[in-house]
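Quick start: what a row looks like.
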Amino acid sequence: MYNQKVRDLVYLSMLMAIIIVLAFVPNIGLFRIGPISFTIVHIPVIIATIYLNRRIGVLTGAIFGISTLIVAYTQVMETPFTTDFLFRNPAISVAPRMLFPYITALFYDNLKKHLKNDYLNVFITSIFGSFIHSILVLSTLFFEFMNVLYLEKAQYLVVNTERIMVPFFNTEIEINFITDALKFIGFVFLTSSIAEAIISGILATAVIFALRKLNQKLGDQEELLNQINKK
């Protein structure tokens, strides 16, 4: 039992280190195609949540969120062509990252009661967790888009036909902000979020079962050594 706790602590340390590296090293955990950002930093959080437990998942989610917050202040420029600087708001960068592993753990615990194939359980939960992460983050971004002060400060609008950012010079342009913001958020969800979910399902499932297999081998070796010592 003691050795198992030590191994879990080692795994946790590795996952936290991976989160920090992915978050702070440019174009590794977060990469951008046009105005759309893709991330894989949430995958170690999903792995920690399923493989260890929900409390560890929330802890790693907090590390993810705080790292994102720091990156938003230190590495992101405030330009009309990205939304990454909005993550300077902890309600966007930290809160969703701490909440989604908790919801993911609840989903996994309930799914195991109805589905006996654990491979499917982990795969489905990993996809679900990625979607929940996207939904929570995009929801907070939507409310930030609706902030009139932000629109005045950034001085740009989202054009509903082209889905691009254009300068705003206080001209009389009649645009439904809510409709356009919803279209933009929906566009992001249909592009980056689906890709992130598929990648999460594949990678998280592979890593979790690799860790379980490794843990079983270490446990078997430990038991064999204990039997030898007793003799």
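That is the whole record. The helical segments are 2-24, 42-51, 54-74, 90-93, 95-114, 118-145, 148-154, 177-230. The chain has one domain: 2-149+176-230.
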